[in-house]
Amino acid sequence: MSSQDFALQAVDLHKAFGSHQVLRGVEFSLRPGEIMGIIGENGAGKTTLLRVLSGELKADRGSVVHKGRLGYCPQRIVVNNELTVEQHLRYFQSAYQLATLTRAHELVERLDLSRYLHRKAGVLSGGTKQKLNLVLALMHDPGVVLMDEPYQGFDWDNYLSFWAITRELCDRGQSVLVISHIAHDVKQFDRLHRLREGQVLVEKPTARHATASRKAAL
Ligand SMILES: Nc1ncnc2c1ncn2[C@@H]1O[C@H](COP(=O)(O)OP(=O)(O)OP(=O)(O)O)[C@@H](O)[C@H]1O
């Protein structure tokens, strides 16, 4: 891959909390239009890595470069319990400087969130709040999307909707990085990496990756 051919690149990332060295030289590139999964044991540093990639947390060393706008769906849901779903959309419309809420409402529809538009976030169930968290990360059509277990609390139909939406993003050339705990996800990824001992290592090729390689070989 040439140095130009990436949507996001992490170079030599280090992060410690006190004497606990969590990231020890993380390096990888996310290609345009690919879905990459990152797995790892509890406490391996996956959330820390995503927080560093998103800019929420400052690395002690190393750099992150990305092209285009970033979308970030954090593990900890950040919504204001006093605002309705629609008010969140309007607030983020202003923050993202969007002319319309067309894409946001399309995502709301796809994730079966429409009936909650005028409810305050504070009274929503965990899974419904997570849908709002996801819509807020995607409504500005970011070029690179970082998601930390983005379907927590989703029922099966919404889990499938999540993956359908994600695949559409990639078909349009957007790039997605997903922190995952679900073995079932593995077949959705173009590439899979494991975070271990503070470094990102290549995991065996996934079913989707194998299919793409076969197509490329034909
Ligand atoms: N703000 C913080 N201050 C101190 N230690 C932290 C902080 N954030 C994370 N850690 C520690 O860093 C390590 C990695 O945490 P992190 O949440 O990144 O792991 P994870 O791989 O996402 O875990 P899980 O799979 O359980 O979500 C853990 O030992 C955690 O206790």
From TrEMBL:
- The superkingdom listed in its UniProt entry is Bacteria
Annotated keywords: ATP-binding, Nucleotide-binding
What name is this protein filed under? Answer: ABC transporter ATP-binding protein
GO molecular function list: ATP binding
Question: Where's the ABC transporter domain?
Answer: 8-218
Name the SMART domains on file: AAA
